[in-house]
Amino acid sequence: MKKILIVEDIGLNLDLLVQILEDDFELLTAGDGEKAIEVATRERPDLILMDLSLPRLDGWEATRRLKSSELKDIPIIVITAHAMVGEEERARECGCDDFMTKPISIDLLMDKIERFLGPLEEQPLG
Ligand SMILES: [Mg+2]
Asked: How much distance in Å is there from the Cα of 41 to the middle of ligand 1?
């Protein structure tokens, strides 16, 4: 099972992402940017979902640091409530690989994840 690190500080948002992804992926979580870097360094996830507004170290800076480290090949999809003009450009400047806005579309999220990780394995029935 591929490993995804979810970086999100709001419990309800985190719960939603966990519900969407828990059957298909091994999940790791972090509630701030410093923790995100710590967990990513230790666990080497296959992909990171990154909120931008985070305590301690925000998602822009955490992404910038990850993308200038030995972990730079891990795809980072930014998920943000910031839907303002210029926000995507600003996020992409810190090196994220993809970008989507809240509220989360499950189909769009799964499309984006599969684009980086390949198609999901068929789950055996029963
Ligand atoms: Mg947040």
From this structure: 21
